[in-house]
Design goal:
This protein has about 100 residues and is α+β, with helices and mostly antiparallel strands. About 15% of the residues lie in helices and about 25% in strands. It has a domain of about 60 residues: D-amino Acid Aminotransferase, subunit A, domain 2 (D-amino Acid Aminotransferase, Chain A, domain 2). The chain has a four-stranded mixed sheet, covered by helices on one side. It has a two-stranded antiparallel sheet with strand order 1-2. Helix 1 links the parallel strand 4 and strand 5. The chain is globular and about 50 Å long.
């Protein structure tokens, strides 16, 4: 694990510390701020996915403005609503 060198910085397994919210590739975060949906932009570290695309499409269909952009940690301290999705990478089938 990389150590975050300053306040507001985050680090993930195998990644350099960066300023702003970052999620593992199988997880996505969404924050409702001022009646608008905000989520980190796809930047190569975040993979596109069905769940992420579905939530963005649902929000746009319900006339919410969606912002895909870098998200400073400070904005995530008190959003109106916070939602985190996760894709399970493996499945165990019952016998």
């Amino acid at each position: 694990m990389t150590t975050a060198p300053r306040a507001g910085a985050t680090a993930g397994r195998g990644r350099q510390a960066t300023r702003g919210a970052r999620t593992p590739t199988s997880e996505h975060l969404f924050a409702m701020i001022g009646g608008q949906l905000h989520t980190p932009a796809l930047d190569g570290a975040i993979l596109p996915g069905i769940t992420r695309d579905s939530l963005i499409a649902l929000a746009r269909n319900r006339v919410y403005r969606v912002h895909e952009r870098p998200m400073p940690i400070d904005e995530l301290l008190a959003p109106d609503l916070f939602h985190w999705t996760r894709t399970v990478p493996t499945w165990a089938m019952p016998r």
